[in-house]
């Protein structure tokens, strides 16, 4: 047993970071949150970068292997920890590590899924409260999350990076994320077969030539869809700021006001990043079109 554990650990160390490269994560965060103080962004970016160093092989930190549920639960967990840390600590940079961690996962969704290839241009989560837990076969509009378990009668096919799923007689667009050779989950949540698509087509070759192959990842500029994934990641990151402000407002005890005082360099720009009604309404009251159409799997 010890030899198996050691071998798995060694294999995990050999798995390269499967994410937007650190410089692009930093660029996305800086572009979206340029109204924050430089030292705050630096702390957020440092933790964001660490996710590709210490946790490169953990699927739910990167939306890899169709780990929709695990990844969204991870984001929710980090938001809870962030609010708790910020309220209990008087340090100026309190909560920045948790924000950096969750932003990494959020940003990776667009680079590691076929959201862009499916033609979707909306953000995947536009709520102001906690992220919705995304479970296999949840539907939103004419789109469905494709992952194990696969129900009897459900048919899934793939044409390039576009997935089609027939669920209960309805033909839907399927959302998947790339399968990674060896993640810490060991067993992928992707359904496998012809509908499966790897994060890389050839991991070894792509380490030296980021434009090589037809894998699903859009981590580097040479890869098709990178610009679109990056643009959506910027918008989602900015929305996460609005979510954070709202969660702090709901936490009470002046948490929102202290967040603005300790993190923000340009309060006017920070306020302009979110429509006024977002920061006034309760997260349970604010719903948007994409969220309204969400149908959890029965």
Q: List the strand order in the largest sheet.
A: 3-4-5-2-1-6
Low-confidence stretches: 1-15, 281-292
Average of the residue pLDDT scores: 84
Radius of gyration using CA atoms only: 19 Å
Query: Count of helices?
Result: 11
Characterization of the model:
The protein is of the alpha+beta class and 298 residues long. It has a domain at 11-134 and 217-295. The chain has 11 helices and 6 strands. It has helices at residues 2-14, 22-32, 38-54, 68-88, 96-112, 203-208, 226-251, 255-263, 267-272, 276-280, 289-292, and strands spanning 139-140, 143-145, 155-159, 162-167, 170-175, 294-295. Strands 3-4-5-2-1-6 form a 6-stranded mixed β-sheet. β4 and β5 form a beta hairpin. α2 packs antiparallel against α3 and α4 (68-88) packs antiparallel against α5. The N and C termini lie far apart (39 Å). The model is unreliable at 1-15 and 281-292 (pLDDT under 50).
Task: Please outline what is shown here.
The chain has 298 residues and is an alpha+beta fold.
Please give a handful of descriptors for the protein shown.
11 helices, 298 residues, six-stranded mixed sheet
SSE arrangement:
Blueprint: H1 2-14, H2 22-32, H3 38-54, H4 68-88, H5 96-112, E1 139-140, E2 143-145, E3 155-159, E4 162-167, E5 170-175, H6 203-208, H7 226-251, H8 255-263, H9 267-272, H10 276-280, H11 289-292, E6 294-295
Parallel strand pairs: 2-5
Antiparallel strand pairs: 1-2, 1-6, 3-4, 4-5
Helix pairs in contact: 2-3, 2-7, 3-5, 4-5, 5-7, 7-8
